[in-house]
């Protein structure tokens, strides 16, 4: 690379850095005088656009000489306010972008002679286009996120006086086209936005620039291009009412490329070198990780977002933790209580040789110089409450660490820089997403909010983000609800005020998750509804064109559904091609014709209409149609929260097991805390005889629904099927606890007993069963599988034997606890209890339990019902066999006499079943008892 080419590359990267600094934290004053104006015409154009952007004059950047140079067609373009004209303009703009980047025949001829020079020229053209696109992006951000809100035309380019005048008379068809274009990702635009064409313009041309550069520039591709693309696409996601799967796929690509370029200090320093201010490299690394974490958090990728937030925290020299300090929370509180406060456990002076601290101090000076610290404070006038905004701490510091302690809710003595403040606040996003929405989780956010409240200098958007977090927290508390409403009102007013200026508001705006202005006003309207101010809320919702909220207020809160119907019909007269209105009309009337009309006007791209039709088909019992519609809707947007579960339910009703399993699986991928979906997955795996998969799914379901005895019962069966006896027994015990022992699965307990008996026969410590079998081969108290020779195999590994023995003892103990809990539940349980006593080697208690089992089966019906007789006969045989075992071990004939009497009476009354095998078994057992009695009598004689 020649020295001239290297200088050009360095200059272009300096332009990239200047552009990025406009959206980062306030940069300190440059230590050296600015370089002289560039001599290259392209570089001069870039410098002019950058100067306008740095001043916050985005309209000037879009109407600059550079815009005229790139988009020469716009001077003669007929800016008619029609959808066709908007589409034609953006098509022409894309073509002009490609033509400008290629550079015509002159650049082609130059590339043959000096390819490096040609690449440098194309790189400069790419940087110029990036600057113009970023100007459009920042203009859209100003009008719809940060403020101050000003009146702008709907056209993305401002070229020529007559054209500008024509643009100001726009009636909104360009925005209608842009809304339709943005909704092509399967989600609708949430509310009413200004200048939607700006974000479409920025996205289309940035993507076109990237495509052309990827194939046309062999080197020197601007590294920040992917970063700006990720910002554009994520901003598009933020203005939609649903998460879009197609946008998420793009974000994964672009944020990955950005991290590849600027993911650590070495890469940032290598790219910009000496152009960076002290500590600025850390700030850039922190910001990109912050933005990546916010993106992952928005799409509910909690673990990934936490990883990025941790990297950002490390990059900016923080090690945050929450500790407790005694303090007062209210004005009239006397006794101090423990308050959560935020501390930094890392010595910032030692981090990166103090560069971050130095950068923070320079940043503070820049705040004072620019007057940004004099921005209006939304909290003025809302502190008239007996609940303090921050706890009044009465201790010097937590755990003796007074250097980093909080005094009256503020950091001391170190202050936080803007990026560090953003890192602190995004922890609230993680807490909200990773935990249940309850009072405890909201209080966990409090120390982070109060730590930023205590900062003397904050960027405008960081202060606003802190205030919106406080508003959400305090509105959930009864005693601070009014203060939260006032704070929200001042927040809404603040975005329309002229101070601070746009350039100051844009700083750090992409490193926090402050809602868009329509979303902010929507949230304000919902707070008004929560306070009973329905009239004011209706005005807000109507102005934002939030028809669903209007329908809810009119229908559910005011009982005036007809007014909602009339309002939507009137709006349809003005906007007959708005699919949102047709869907809202369908919601009011529950008429499928309106949803079909929404599909027609959206060219079959309205996912909401398809979902509504699918629900109605399901409610009618037309499950096949519902399944097809859900498949079509999810193909448009696969991230709709309840869509996959609904698809699985429809497929299940339609007997499409594979599709149902796929739907429920996708549902838990989006929402891992969906117990119904996990339960359905487990049941479907049970149907398909996939016991291991079913066991895993049931275990996940039980994490979130532990009070469902049906879930525990199914779980016990699956655990038994895969041989996990302990889990099967624990699940069985949970079923009994939840049903007060009214639900008992004797068949499952019998299966467990068989397995435990097999284990006991394999253990040398459990000799009772073996000795009994060896002494009396005719024992029938155990199933044949237990008495098989295969069950006698003993492992040769001593450690395995000891481990297996401990496991068997544990299973026997669990079984004993279960039987003692349900002992009076019937004959089957008494039989199981007897077998348990036999495992323990207590034949006396075994005989007592078997005797109670026999008595539970007795009655007049036993001699009339063959099935009942079989149970009675089997229990009698088991009882008499145990009697014979006791007699053989003790030499007593009392048990033999009892067995003889019982068998004689049974055989006498069972003459009606003399042709059954059970009757013959009783007769054989009776003969055996008589032989043993005779033998005992002979011995005594």
UniProtKB/TrEMBL annotation:
Which parts of the chain are TPR repeats? 641-674
Q: Which UniProt keywords apply?
A: Repeat, TPR repeat
- Specify the domain of life of the species encoding this protein: Eukaryota
Where along the sequence do coiled-coil regions lie? none
Enumerate the SMART domains for this protein.
TPR
**Gene3D superfamilies membership:** Tetratricopeptide repeat domain (1.25.40.10)
- Protein name, UniProt field: Tetratricopeptide repeat protein 27 homolog
Q: Which species expresses this protein natively?
A: Acorus gramineus
């Amino acid at each position: 690379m020649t020295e001239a080419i290297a200088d050009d590359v360095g200059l272009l990267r300096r332009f990239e850095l200047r552009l990025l600094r406009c959206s980062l934290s306030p940069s300190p004053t440059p230590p050296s005088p600015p370089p002289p104006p560039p001599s290259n015409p392209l570089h001069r154009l870039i410098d002019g656009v950058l100067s306008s952007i740095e001043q916050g004059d985005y309209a000037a950047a879009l109407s600059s000489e550079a815009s005229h140079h790139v988009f020469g067609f716009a001077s003669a373009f007929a800016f008619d306010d029609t959808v066709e004209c908007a589409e034609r303009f953006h098509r022409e703009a894309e073509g002009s972008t490609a033509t400008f980047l290629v550079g015509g025949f002159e650049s082609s001829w130059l590339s043959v002679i000096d390819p490096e020079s040609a690449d440098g020229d194309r790189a400069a053209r790419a940087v110029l286009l990036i600057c113009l696109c970023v100007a459009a992006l920042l203009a859209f951000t100003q009008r719809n996120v940060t403020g101050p809100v000003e009146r702008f035309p709907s056209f993305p380019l401002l070229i020529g006086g007559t054209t500008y005048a024509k643009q100001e008379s726009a009636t909104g068809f360009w925005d209608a086209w842009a809304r339709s274009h943005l909704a092509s990702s399967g989600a609708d635009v949430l509310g009413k936005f200004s200048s939607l064409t700006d974000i479409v313009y920025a996205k289309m041309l940035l993507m076109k620039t990237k495509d052309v550069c990827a194939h046309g520039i062999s080197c020197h591709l601007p590294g920040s291009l992917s970063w700006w693309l990720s910002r554009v696409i994520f901003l598009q996601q933020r203005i939609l009412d649903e998460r879009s799967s197609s946008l998420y796929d793009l974000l994964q690509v672009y944020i990955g490329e950005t991290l590849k370029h600027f993911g650590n200090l070495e890469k940032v320093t290598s790219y910009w070198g000496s152009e960076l201010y002290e500590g600025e490299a850390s700030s850039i690394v922190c910001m990109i990780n912050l933005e990546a974490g916010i993106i992952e958090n928005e799409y509910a990728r909690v673990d990934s977002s936490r990883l990025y937030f941790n990297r950002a925290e490390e990059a900016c020299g923080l090690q945050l933790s929450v500790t407790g300090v005694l303090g007062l929370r209210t004005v009239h509180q006397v006794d101090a209580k423990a308050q959560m406060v935020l501390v930094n456990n890392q010595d910032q002076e030692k981090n990166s040789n103090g560069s971050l601290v130095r950068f923070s101090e320079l940043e503070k000076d820049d705040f004072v110089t620019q007057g940004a610290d004099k921005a209006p404070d939304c909290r003025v006038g809302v502190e008239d409450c007996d609940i303090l905004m921050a706890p009044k701490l009465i201790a010097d510091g937590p755990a003796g660490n007074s250097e980093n302690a909080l005094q009256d809710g503020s950091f001391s003595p170190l202050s936080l820089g803007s990026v560090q403040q953003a890192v602190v606040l995004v922890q609230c996003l993680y807490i909200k997403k990773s935990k249940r929405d309850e009072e405890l989780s909201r209080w966990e956010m409090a120390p982070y909010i109060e730590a930023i409240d205590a900062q003397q200098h904050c960027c405008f958007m960081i202060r606003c983000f802190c205030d919106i977090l406080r508003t959400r927290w305090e509105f959930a508390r009864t005693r601070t609800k009014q203060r939260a409403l006032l704070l929200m009102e001042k927040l809404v007013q603040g975005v329309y005020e002229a101070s601070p200026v746009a350039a100051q508001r844009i700083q750090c705006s992409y490193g926090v998750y402050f809602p868009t202005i329509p979303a902010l006003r929507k949230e304000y309207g919902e707070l008004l509804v929560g306070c009973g101010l329905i009239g004011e809320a209706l005005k807000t919702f109507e102005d934002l064109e939030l028809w669903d909220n209007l329908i809810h207020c009119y229908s559910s809160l005011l009982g005036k559904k007809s007014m909602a119907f009339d309002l939507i019909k009137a709006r349809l007269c003005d906007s007959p091609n708005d699919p949102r209105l047709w869907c809202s009309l369908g919601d009011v009337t529950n008429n499928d014709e309106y949803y079909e009309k929404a599909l027609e006007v959206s060219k079959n791209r309205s996912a909401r209409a398809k979902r509504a039709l699918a629900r109605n088909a399901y409610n009618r019992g037309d499950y096949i149609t519902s399944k097809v519609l859900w498949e079509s809707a999810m193909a448009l947007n696969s991230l709709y929260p309840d869509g996959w579960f609904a698809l699985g339910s429809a497929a299940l009703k339609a007997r499409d097991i594979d599709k149902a399993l796929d739907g429920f699986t996708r549902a838990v991928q989006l929402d891992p805390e969906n117990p119904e979906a996990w339960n359905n997955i487990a049941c479907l795996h049970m149907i398909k005889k996939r016991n291991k998969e079913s066991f895993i799914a049931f275990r996940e379901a039980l994490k979130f629904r532990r009070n469902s005895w049906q879930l525990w019962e199914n779980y016990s069966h699956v655990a038994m099927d895969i041989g996990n006896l302990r889990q099967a027994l624990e699940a069985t015990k949970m079923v009994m606890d939840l049903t007060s022992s009214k639900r008992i699965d004797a068949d499952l307990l019998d299966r467990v007993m068989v397995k435990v008996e097999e284990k006991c026969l394999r253990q040398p410590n459990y000799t009772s069963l073996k000795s009994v079998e060896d002494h009396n081969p005719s024992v029938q108290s155990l199933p044949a599988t237990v008495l098989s020779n295969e069950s006698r195999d003993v492992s040769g590994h001593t450690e395995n034997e000891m481990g297996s023995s401990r496991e068997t003892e544990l299973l026997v103990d669990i079984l004993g606890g279960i039987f003692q809990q349900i002992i009076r539940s019937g004959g089957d349980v008494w039989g199981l209890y007897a077998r348990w006593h036999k495992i323990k080697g207590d034949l006396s208690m075994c005989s007592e339990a078997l005797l109670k089992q026999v008595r539970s089966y007795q009655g007049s019906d036993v001699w009339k019902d063959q099935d009942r007789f079989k149970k009675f006969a089997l229990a009698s045989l088991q009882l008499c066999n145990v009697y014979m075992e006791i007699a053989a071990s003790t030499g007593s004939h009392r048990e033999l006499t009892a067995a003889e009497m019982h068998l004689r009476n049974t055989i006498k009354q069972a003459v009606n079943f003399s042709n059954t095998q059970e009757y013959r078994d009783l007769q054989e057992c009776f003969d055996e008892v008589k032989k043993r009695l005779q033998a005992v009598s002979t011995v005594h004689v």
